[in-house]
Design brief:
Length: 80
């Protein structure tokens, strides 16, 4: 699916949580995600790189869920 949006502050749909959102300049638009989901996906990469622990990642997911509810990136990791 190709959407042709003009550069700027066009509104688009987050591919993760399905909410309409706007680019805040953090690069989330290229992933078609809202700022919250983009943040979580960024932290997931940090977790995979070993920069944060699963527990820290889960905390970020919970904070994001408080802000905009449950979505595809709300899955928490198993903490041993
Ligand atoms: Zn989202
Ligand atoms: Zn999400």
């Amino acid at each position: 699916m190709i959407n042709k949006f003009r550069q700027g502050s066009a509104v688009y749909k987050c591919q993760c949580c399905g909410k309409m959102t706007r680019d805040t300049g953090e690069g989330e638009k290229s992933c078609e995600m809202c700022a919250g989901c983009f943040e979580v996906s960024g932290y997931f990469n940090s977790f995979q790189d070993g920069q944060i622990t699963a527990a820290e990642y889960n905390k970020i997911v919970e904070q994001n869920m408080d802000r905009h509810g449950e979505c595809s990136c709300s899955d928490r990791l198993e903490v041993e």
